[in-house]
């Protein structure tokens, strides 16, 4: 992510999770994607982060909550320390049945059901879903939103610290022009960014957040894909619209 680091207090507001994949061949652990804790038992992420055809031989075993700096535990900043990160085992992965249909990375959304209920604290809280009556008036071109993640930085290496980037919503037609040769974009996608600051490899599955009318953050979109060279001016990245899948999310969490 071409962006700035968050601080420990900001993490309290961002309410993020990091998914870790364990390689079944050699036991290697790595952060694969980000996600959003949306209830005590469910994490919202991108289907590409958990679908068997994409993780290829790796097994999603657990989700880490309340993390900020990956190399330290607990995390401290400005004399404020969070509790030790929480690792919760995965019970089930629910990939949207339309993933990769009719084209690659369509319906790029999934839910992770955790084995046990998460005990919330100051640093671990669920983020809101978009309201059920979400309409087109909720978002408009040039509105500013916030994306976060531990993805690649300008150095080409993954970030050790959770980073945030403020991006503007772009015209859908721009993304259709940039990506039409390889992807079929529709109303389930959002076109965001297009400047030097951008999400990047490793940020997939993480949230794009916006404030609602009550000044509470909700997850507007999920990082999906972008240009081969992150932060290429004139080439916004593509995100999955969470509001488009509101019914599927709520129904899947009930079953």
Overview of this protein structure:
This protein has four helices and 15 strands. It is globular, with a radius of gyration of 17 Å. The protein has helices at residues 8-14, 52-55, 172-179, 246-254; strands at 4-5, 16-23, 29-37, 42-45, 58-65, 76-77, 80-81, 86-95, 110-114, 144-149, 163-168, 189-192, 207-211, 217-225, 237-241. Strand 6 (76-77) and strand 7 (80-81) form a beta hairpin. The protein has two domains: 13-126 and 250-254, Trypsin-like serine proteases (Thrombin, subunit H); 136-243, Beta Barrel (Thrombin, subunit H). The chain has a seven-stranded antiparallel sheet with strand order 1-11-10-13-14-15-12. Mean pLDDT is 83; it is low at 6-25. The protein is mainly beta.
What brief labels describe this structure?
single chain, 255 residues, mainly beta, Thrombin, subunit H, 2 domains, 7-stranded antiparallel beta sheet, 6-stranded antiparallel beta barrel, 4 helices, 11% helix, 33% strand, globular, hydrolase, TRYPSIN_SER
Overall pLDDT confidence? 83
> Count of helical segments?
4
Portion of residues in helices?
Answer: 10-25%
Low-confidence stretches: 6-25
Task: Summarize the biggest pleated sheet.
Answer: 7 strands, antiparallel
Strand order of the largest sheet: 1-11-10-13-14-15-12
**At the third CATH level, what is the topology name of the largest domain?**
Thrombin, subunit H
Note the gap between the termini. 35 Å
Number of strands: 15
CATH superfamily of the largest domain: Trypsin-like serine proteases
Pfam families: Trypsin (PF00089)
Keywords: Disulfide bond, Glycoprotein, Hydrolase, Protease, Signal
Signal peptide: 1-24
Domain Peptidase S1: 10-254
